[in-house]
Amino acid sequence: MPLQDTIETSGTFLRTLAAQAAAFLPNLLIALLILCVGFFLAGRLAAVVARALGVSARIDETVRGPLVAIVRYVVIVFTLLVALSQVGVQMTSLLAILG
Q: Is residue 34 part of a domain?
């Protein structure tokens, strides 16, 4: 393969790579935004649930911590699934693993 063909092939490859990266970048930025908002909301929702359960006299203290953690991690898992879906990961196999 002559040097000129190698240079042309490399140039074509780099142009294609740059175009694909430019097309993927908005989805990646939206996914990062989804992650930031989701993790923030998970913490806030966990705090709200902890406060609500702290006021209630009917919920035992040993149950409050695990309930708050469950709420937080459910929101985080949902956030991760939405962010992965945004970047193009197929959710059918992941949802099958989660049950």
A: yes
Domain that holds residue 86: 25-98
Q: pLDDT tens for residues 41-72?
A: 999 999 999 999 888 778 888 888 899 999 99
Q: Is 20 exposed, middle or buried (0-12, 13-18, 19+ CB in 10 A)?
A: exposed
Burial 48-70 (b: 16+ CB within 10 A, else e): ebbeebeeeeeeeeeebeeebee
Q: What's the CATH code of the domain at 31?
A: 1.10.287.1260
Q: What is the model's pTM?
A: 0.77
